[in-house]
Amino acid sequence: MYGRLARLRLHWYARVGRDLLARYWQWALLATLLVPGAPIVAPFLRFAELLGIAVAPGPGMAGHAVLAVVIDLMAVLWVLPQRRALLGGAFMEYVATLPVPRHVRLGVGATMLVVANGPLLLAAGLAAARIASQAEGVYPACCFLVVLGLAGVAQHAAVSRRLVVLGGVGVGDLLLAAGLDAPSAPGRWGLAGAALAGAVAVAGFGERLAEAGGRRRRRRAGRVVALDRPGIMAPALRVQWGILADRPVLSVFRIGAAVALAFGVARLVALFDFDSRAVPTLIVAVAVIGLLLAGLYRTLSEAHRAAAGYLASLPLPRRYWPLRDTGFLMLVNLVPLAVLLRPRGQQGGGLLAVLAGLVAAGQALLVLLRWPVLHGGRHRLVLSLLLAAGWSGAAMAAVSR
């Protein structure tokens, strides 16, 4: 049973990975062209150094605890973008109804994490070789295995959204740090064993708690929650926010990157004291923000396409979702634009007119980007970049007049 389930999960993982590569290879190529000598191997070497420092003597209990938490956080961030591929898709909802033993499910899940962590495990191998050559005794090597085990438990908790397990991982990090700083050998070994055993116990408890929570949620399925009550939020907005919430990594990345870029460029313009470099910088920033948020058109469109059969049975106009998705993203776009182009009264009315024009032009660019994103096919990135570049040139020419 383990072999069959593992083969099916690995096949799904390879299929999703292939689709992601086909979708985003243009972004990877563009990043390689724009950043000569982009670091590819160096981050994994730094991660190997971090793993070695985490069990090395010297940092103290607080330092070891912080390093262990940082390693767990990096491991979770590595695996979160692969969450959809690791969960197995809709097929696993069917498997959940079958009498598959719990140890088989956990074994298959562990196998998938090993596959997903391939590059990180290579870095861990380098760190293990360095620890074995420098350390005295087997205690640092055992602590190193405990660090890897705690990171794996944290990844499992993040992928399965059982956040209560992360509390056990934090306790394990503290016990491990105390063991590395303990003066006596029995205390060190006892704390290291308690760290790993506690994390495993909390993982099992968290899984049973999540199952109980799922049964409780099913019993309460008929109850009305606040946001589902009429008048709290428009139905279209509830659907759109739900789509983005169902894809948290991609949505948070795009919206967060747009807002962070707006804050950074606003700070840069303030350092320029709004000289001749400021307006071209703002124009380029507005174009990049539009490119970042335009990717959400595809996210929303794919979700609507999946429900096309149900939507066809409703008395909705043909352009119902395209118009509302465009308006929704224009509403989201107001947040980074407000940060980036906030009024500066000391610069006079001419500047306010320029900023208002950039807001309107930025919204128009976001509307225009819908076509290449949804209908550009394999060339959507190139077409979007050409459109944004043309818009930037036209905006700079208009401002220069």
UniProtKB/TrEMBL annotation:
Transmembrane segments: 21-41, 61-80, 106-131, 137-154, 163-183, 189-210, 252-272, 278-300, 321-341, 347-369, 381-399
Domain of life: Bacteria
Protein keywords: Membrane, Transmembrane, Transmembrane helix
Record protein name field: Uncharacterized protein
Species lineage: Bacteria, Pseudomonadati, Pseudomonadota, Alphaproteobacteria, Acetobacterales
